Amino acid sequence: MAQTTTPCRWALLGLSSIAQTFVDDILLPRDSSDPISHIVTSVSTTGGQERAHKWLAERKVPNSQDVAVFATFEEMLKSGDFDVIYISTPHPLHYPHALAALNHKRNVLLEKPATMNRPQLERLIQVSKEQGVVFMEAMWTRYLPATLFLQQHIMPQIGPIRRVFADLSVPIASKDMDLTSRLLDKEAGAGAWLDMGIYCLAWADVVLNPDNENKKIPKVVFADSIPYYTGKEDVDDINTVVISGKSESSGQSSAIAIVTTSLTLAGSNKSADRLAVKKVGPSVKIEAENAQVCIPFPLIRPQELHVEWYGSEHLDEKGDAKAEVIKLPVERGWGLWYQADVIAKAVRDRKSENDQKPGLAIGEEESLRVMQWLDDARELAGIKYDPASEAV
């Protein structure tokens, strides 16, 4: 019997640059055998219908003139005809927007970081379960082929993890940048830690908590930050964080993760696409008892795993270590559609079961661990935001 393709109908809150990439990705041509397809049916924007339809047309959204454009978010939540809402507003607005959507019994894909702190995230997870809907943080890197292959096939072979390095440093900030840019505006949650650190911490979590069964959650033991002065205020820039995993038997440190970020370091800021440049060093390095694994830049979109197995049998005729290069390319687009498929399948499956069940928070444990690390590192490094943006 031919497999039925289920369309997932999307609503958009926030016509951001990441929303552009997201929409471009989910609307890429798909094989007729794919179990999921995606369509955009609703948009909420304060910019008016003309701007919204122009944006949709630029994204080549099919039948863009038929997409319902709502002047207010509340109106879209009440009347919009959609399966999942994708929220990509500035960081401090994630919590109130997602909370409103969940309370309207809407399934939510929420851009990362999902919230400004762990208590806000805990509340969203609680409400999603109370309302019987699906909630998911848009940490898309977790669902890419290279990440899944590492977890399922490489991690079980390389032995206990001893050390992890993860860096995401991209020269985004510059003196001629508009101070109202989200990347420099503290009121919009600016700073390297929330924007970039979350990716590095996601990798630390993949490696230090591979099966979600680590009873002793690794702790942040050091964090420091060198700020970037915008001319108006400081935003965190060059950040270094150390996470220590403890042995359950001895209680001593058994694995260390070193995480670094910057929005001014690592090359020229003249590049049109800073995330497409080739870099010499790895973006992630995992050191284990049996092998080390290196992941080339950028760690947000891994497409290769370089595995160096230890032992004389893995040396070449000159006695040099041989690296096994495993290519696991993103199948199409930038790769945001993988996460869209994950939540779309969860929503489809819950519909087919047709019964009242508690809601589902996809990636709940991973997101909570990473958010705790974000909070702890901010406290140690003195990275602060308006307390109102962190209220629950």
What is the CATH topology of the largest domain?
A: Rossmann fold
Mean pLDDT: 91
Helix content: 25-40%
Q: What does the largest sheet look like? A: 8 strands, mixed
Give the CA-based shape. Answer: globular
Strand content: 25-35%
What is the first-to-last residue Cα distance? 49 Å
Q: How many structurally independent domains?
A: 2
Give helix and strand order, one letter per element, not per position. Answer: EHEHEHEHEHEHEHEEEEEEEHEH
Protein name: D-xylose 1-dehydrogenase (NADP(+), D-xylono-1,5-lactone-forming)
Organism: Xylaria grammica
Domain Gfo/Idh/MocA-like oxidoreductase N-terminal: 10-137
Keywords: Oxidoreductase
Structure description:
The chain is α/β, with parallel strands linked by helices. It is 31% helix and 26% strand. The protein contains 9 helices and 15 strands. An 8-stranded mixed sheet has the order 8-9-10-7-11-12-13-14, covered by helices on one side. The protein has a 7-stranded parallel sheet with strand order 3-2-1-4-5-6-15, sandwiched between helices. Helix 7 (192-208) crosses helix 9 (364-381). The protein starts with 5 loop residues before the first strand and ends in an 11-residue tail after the last helix.
Brief overview:
The chain is an alpha/beta fold and 392 residues long.
Question: What keywords describe this structure?
Answer:
nucleotide binding, Gfo/Idh/MocA-like_OxRdtase_N, Rossmann fold, 15 strands, 392 residues, alpha/beta, seven-stranded parallel sheet, 9 helices, 2 domains, Dihydrodipicolinate Reductase, domain 2, 26% strand
